[in-house]
Amino acid sequence: MTPARISKPAAQRRDDILDAAQRLFTTKGVQATSVEDILQDVGIAKGTLYYHFRSKDEILQGIITRTTERVAVKARQVADRPDPVITRFLGVLAAMRVDAPELALAETLHGPGNAEFHVLSIVEMVRAITPILAEVVEQGVAEGSFSTEHPQDMVEILLTSMGMLLDDGIFRGEADQIPRRTAALISAAETLLGCRPGALATAAHDMRIAGATGGAR
Amino acid sequence: MTPARISKPAAQRRDDILDAAQRLFTTKGVQATSVEDILQDVGIAKGTLYYHFRSKDEILQGIITRTTERVAVKARQVADRPDPVITRFLGVLAAMRVDAPELALAETLHGPGNAEFHVLSIVEMVRAITPILAEVVEQGVAEGSFSTEHPQDMVEILLTSMGMLLDDGIFRGEADQIPRRTAALISAAETLLGCRPGALATAAHDMRIAGATGGAR
DNA sequence: CCATACCGACCGACGGTCGGTCGGTGGCGG
DNA sequence: CCGCCACCGACCGACCGTCGGTCGGTATGG
């Protein structure tokens, strides 16, 4: 009658838990997801979960770390491709959003505990992606398509504001502003990185990156 | 022996609760502060707190709203002063940090629930201050000291990244980066708003705004 | 046979609720 | 002008359900 205890290698079980938790966290919010919920979804007992993770918070941290690592790998690949600098620049940005749709999706509802999730993700993303993207910009500066004295700093500023302003889990109820903000951020990037005005916007449009057609406002 | 029940007008009691909660939240973190703690600090019973607030979360929201309103008032005053545009621009930024030291201070410790607090503050600040600051920039554009086609958008981007990058409750353990980031943000502001390079930096230095001396990096 | 993975009853703390109490105030009859 | 009383906003604290986390013990498989 007992459903037969199944044992798995720790790494795999860890991933199972992370998968379930990620789905639930993004679906109904971190606070609103109980450990019990995760247990039921994975099909394990409480003790098992706490055998693999020290706390609920560590699970959240685990999701963010895992996702960030995946994105960083993809970003690195894109950054190292033999494409034009502008293509690679936009490609890295795309890698951030494309690979993490799970993080950006759903949970339009109530707040507590969710902004936390989003902001931690953003911070980790900025930390991980800034050096990669700055490298691309530096190459752009070297070849003349970009022009700035502080690539790393400007990239950091751009990534931070991008992460915040395009996340509707943070600026609640302003999802309709996202196209405007996307255009504004591209415009800001052009200015800050000193590339030909409109160069990023048109390239973004060609790459079919959302809301990247016109001027801001 | 019973300490005699003291009754106050609701508004005042509300403020008392907000005061205590703000002190505790910033001291030991939102999550780590129990409702019980607040009760003890204010010297009231649980029912009383829940007579004035619907939930712990509403208290947090109340603190943020109150602080934002105060800052907005001060920012408005500064923006309307008969000073040079650049002075007023920096003055508004200063108003944000000066008037909200309670929000930025302390609680270097453990994470959960605190980033939430900070990020909500930042979002509200951006919402409240953007129009005020954009107005100043527009005046600057009109008189020629600034030059940008999208004042509102650029201000929004600047405020967002400022809020994030200068808050050590968000980028944990990077407090030492703040001077560098301050300089970078000023530099970015100069570029985005199209004012004379170094104009903001020197003015900031004259106004004794922290870490605003040299170029970025 | 021993480490590793797993189980689930149990615990204490916490956020939130609820029935009820207290003190001041305004109206009204005397 | 006084005293009574109905009313009401503010206040109280015992109580409850839920939740994150613990622990002693058990199955599995190398």
TrEMBL record, chains A, B:
Domain HTH tetR-type: 11-71
One Pfam family per UniProt: TetR_N
Organism: Propionibacterium ruminifibrarum
Stored InterPro entries: DNA-bd_HTH_TetR-type_CS (IPR023772), Homeodomain-like_sf (IPR009057), HTH-type_TetR-like_transc_reg (IPR050109), HTH_TetR (IPR001647), TetR/AcrR_C (IPR049149)
Name the UniProt record assigns to this protein: Homeobox domain-like
Entry keywords, A to Z: DNA-binding, Homeobox, Transcription, Transcription regulation
Molecular function via GO: DNA-binding transcription factor activity; transcription cis-regulatory region binding
UniProt DNA-binding residue ranges: 34-53
Family matches, as Gene3D superfamilies: Tetracycline Repressor, domain 2
